[in-house]
């Protein structure tokens, strides 16, 4: 079987609780050509035959990559992930226009939304698909389909960033979306039929927001090709693109897997600089002196004030070199709070701790390490003017996959534990991933050691031996 990987010049647009136990094996499990042994193994198999080192050195955030596989096994596996016929069953579960699904078509270079109101009925959906030549855009299928949950959960562990997805179904001779670019890194898996793609040089490299681009502005395509089942396409955020299903063929189905939204160095600075300023201002009286009178009332910032701010920024940079790290205000917590829970191969229930209770004579080992964040921050429950620093463990073990990538709501919660900073050395012992006897934890008293082990066990964070 021939395999060819082609560099291609620069993302697409993008109900009740789901049980954690798996009672049946998806068809895709039997066909899978992906390696789910670890997050790294999954990504390696996803972009095969391209090597990971080559991908990140030559393509990631730089240029598109087209992998045309001509591999019947991979094509069969991709087709098993999602078929148009799956919509019938999903509509019976309860899908709603706008929230779960959009019906749209590109007409004269503009996106026309053809949604009805309320609940989606498959017969009406099929009618719009056949008669109006409309594209069906199914949002975040990992909420319903276990195999997407399985893939995206591993990719979130691999990238350390949220991973979303949309499935696009487009009839023959039709196009769903106008030329546009996105604010995400995009991996496209062709599932059914064929899709004609055209890519264009970015007008905004590594864009931070979605934008439609008029045909007159984008010029000629840098890449023009057909995706077939089993093929994979990657392109960086900012890549202008459009795609249509060729005439005379069956419909096309592809899934867009996206990541790295708001995950840049600029975002990290925005997230951490306020905590850094607050921390250093406690030690540097110059940062606590007042700004000039009426400065906020002026139209333009005075030159002297800009020089002052530049000096403060240099001071921050110099002092940062001597500090242990940056304190993340929101990025870490948002990631942990909004990501997928672990996909459980054996059907075990995460919501209940294991039967074996930890004692001082037990040995414990951290589990689900890729779903746990250990960090330091101010005591959020302390109301005085000088809050104490605390050690925090946040985790995603109790997250609900049915709200994944659907925005924060009352069901999106931050799960975790808070400990005195004196527990940090003991937490790092456990964080190493090695088995640690409870009595050997670096804490002063046996009571502290036992309480730490029990707290982590209660949250299903440790195995007990």
TrEMBL record:
Annotated region described as Disordered, given as residue ranges: 1-26
Highest taxon, organism lineage: Eukaryota
Family: Belongs to the ROX family. MINA53 subfamily.
GO terms assigned for molecular function: histone H3K36 demethylase activity; histone H3K4 demethylase activity; iron ion binding; peptidyl-histidine dioxygenase activity
Reactions catalysed, as given in the entry: L-histidyl-[protein] + 2-oxoglutarate + O2 = (3S)-3-hydroxy-L-histidyl-[protein] + succinate + CO2; L-histidyl-[ribosomal protein uL15] + 2-oxoglutarate + O2 = (3S)-3-hydroxy-L-histidyl-[ribosomal protein uL15] + succinate + CO2
Enzymatic class: oxidoreductase
Protein's name according to its UniProt entry: Bifunctional lysine-specific demethylase and histidyl-hydroxylase
GO annotation, cellular component aspect: nucleolus
Manner of cofactor binding, per the entry note: Binds 1 Fe(2+) ion per subunit.
EC number from the UniProt entry: 1.14.11.-
Compartments where found: Nucleus, Nucleolus
Pfam families: JmjC_2, WHD_ROXA
Membrane-spanning intervals of the chain: none
